[in-house]
Fold each of these.
Amino acid sequence: MKTQMAKVIDAQSKQLDTQSQEIRSQTKQIEALRQETAEMKAQIAAIPAKLDK
């Protein structure tokens, strides 16, 4: 019984590690998209000034 519980706990631990890695990866992707969005907003904000020239 203890061996079976240990196997389940080990499997759950590995699953949690995998999920944590996925979350870190997604967080990095979100941050990159936020940066990209901020850059695009700055470019869009500059358009009217360029059109007035």
Note: The chain has one domain: 1-53.
Amino acid sequence: MQNEMSPYHPMDEYKQALDTVSYRDSEAFYAVQEQYRSEKYRIYDLGIFDLMLGGVIFLATIMQCTRILAAPRIVIVLLAIIVPLLSGSGQVVGLELSAQRDTFPSWADTLAIPFVGVIFYCFFSLLFSLCHLGYLQDCRGDSISLTKCPSKWLAGLIVLNLIFMVSSAFDGAWWEVFPSVLWLYYFASIGSRLHWGA
């Protein structure tokens, strides 16, 4: 369709500007993209983000938040393993979308380096999440906490996740919705067990 919004506008001028960019001049390449980028992908991503977040809020409402936070220990343990992997998968989706949308210059012909970064992220975030399972022992009276004030620590992590979600919302990073919500759920579930006992 002729009236369909293009990712860069005007497209002819954008292509001409790209032709003037020297090989491996990444700074100039991204400057041209920033100058001619339209709101097409941003509107698309924000729409998907809002739909996914709305679905999560709807499910949380009908299931009742207090019941959701009363998660069995096995669910929390599974979350400690699944959430870092899901979060890494979200980053892979973001990289693939960027590649499909020609966000990277032609000389960046491989995503191998970013993918290696995702692998390291998954490894360290998995260690991070598993360490927090020690808080579950506190519910039985054992003292193997990561900090002397676990409630404040967990509250800080929840706030950081909320800030990250707001940042993702501005960027329209819909692939970060479920991982962010599950990180929130994971830390909130541990916090609820520390507060009410289990």
Note: Residues 73-100 form the longest helix (28 residues).
Amino acid sequence: MNDTALEMDMDASEISATAAAMLAGLLEEDKVPGKRGPKVKIDVANMTREERLAHNAELRRERYARKTAMKAEGSLPIDEATARDALADAALMILGSGTAGADAIMTYLEKVYSDKVGVPIAIRAKASSGKLRPKLIGFAEKSS
């Protein structure tokens, strides 16, 4: 059998790995589109402080680049911060408009700012006047 032929006794995982390797060779790339490849485990515990800081900085850059690309495409990342922003926006809009639920939001603000009496009233006034605006309203308007 010549060198480029695949042997017939390979199982499916070996064939797909071989096909991915051949595709990567054709594309002259390390990564094959659509294939994540093997998960790389990084031993953060044995890194020096400087290595760990550099590693974390690289992860933050990658995460920021992904979020920026998603926003440019008109999409939002599915993460805790975005969920909190969306919920905060909803609370701002309800509080500002005085619709059903505004009293519950005011009660919550009064509990959070129990030591600062005027803060909940100031927040409601800013929400009503439009000085305190929702962050993600642009994305919500696009989808409707």
Note: Residues 57 and 63 are 10 Å apart (CA to CA).
